[in-house]
User: Fold these one by one.
Assistant:
Number 1:
Amino acid sequence: MEIILDVASTDQHFEQILQLQRENLFSAISAERQAQQGFVFAEHNMALLKRFAMELPQAIALSNDKVVGYNLGMPVSMRNEIASLVPMFEEFDRCEYKGKPLASYKYMVGGQVCVHKDFRGHGLLSKLYHETKNRLPSGYQLCVTEVAARNNAGINAHQKMGFEVVRTYHDGKELWKIVVWDLEPV
């Protein structure tokens, strides 16, 4: 099974990202599957993905020209574009990393990462994050995201590749873990 890493650049890529997202939304899968394989929360649309792509790479994994995994890079400048993510950014503003406020770093948001169920267990999450890192404009120091605390598969995958939990908070509906990946380790 050959996997090619690239960045989303066509309408077909973006449509396939959205399809994979819909298939893995927490509201579309059973609690049992959520517990075993993880899930995603935020729903995006084509226009928003294209706006993300204008500023940051949207890494994709392709198998036979079909998107089987993606890592969305979200610029901090778009913090108010998705209402459901505003509380996340407010929590980011309260975070510190290595004794400094998160806001003092140039960081990108891991806007969402997802791998098709048939392609899990091959290290694609890490490969997608590294593809994003390798294609970022210069100067980015951190990648920051949040993972639902009950999403053990997601937490474990992020920690395995080097993300550190820096804060846990409850938004009134869900318990979240804010995780940081240092893009320029010493």
Number 2:
Amino acid sequence: MLGFALGALFVLALPRRQVPPERPSVPRPPVTALTPARVTTVEAVFAEWGKYAMWERDVTQIALWNSDTAGFTDAFEVVRLGENLYFRSIPRLSRPLLTHGVPSDSPLEFTETEEQRQQWLKETAQESWKALQAALPGSAPAKPSP
């Protein structure tokens, strides 16, 4: 009986567990489950729009429009082996976006290498130079300086 009484006193002497004060609730945006782009979707879209892809050593990168995020957020690397195409999801595009020659309503964004971009810029500058030279009255076409 003495042990029971000492145990009860010991339990009563223990510090009480304090309930932390309630923190004010911070409104959070609703969490939406994002559905990953299915490979079959990417394959079907690429079959129609892949003609705009810029290949380097049979590899290119694309981004597919995702209606859940309202952006080109699903990135893929495409490998071409003969007539077969293989798609691999990647976290983000690592090449510059192709900004010329692709229709504005394309559901894919395409990339090009830095070398391909520099070549296109060089060709565009040469064409502009030729057009400028041709527009000047009485001037013979001249070569642009490097």
Number 3:
Amino acid sequence: MALGIKSGDQVEVISGGYKGAVGRVLTTFPKKGQAIVEGINLCKRHTKAKSQRQPGGRIEKERPIALCKLMVLDAKTGRGTRFENAIVGGRKVRKSKATGNEI
């Protein structure tokens, strides 16, 4: 599967319980077709206290979400957009299909 979404991209969730939410991609898993997005798909993890410095309790952490549910944000419009790979000035860039701007 060709990855179009990279770490550090701003993305919008287009389906599911977090539909419409926006976040930054922290990590991608190309073989699984998933990504971890900041503030999206949160779950509570119960941890046992290891020492006084690391107390136990419930920790909220992000879980992976399928790439097919994410769209890259266009900086100009602030909405999710499809994109294409193009060569501009001898370098490969991603361009928005809607506005033609670099992502």
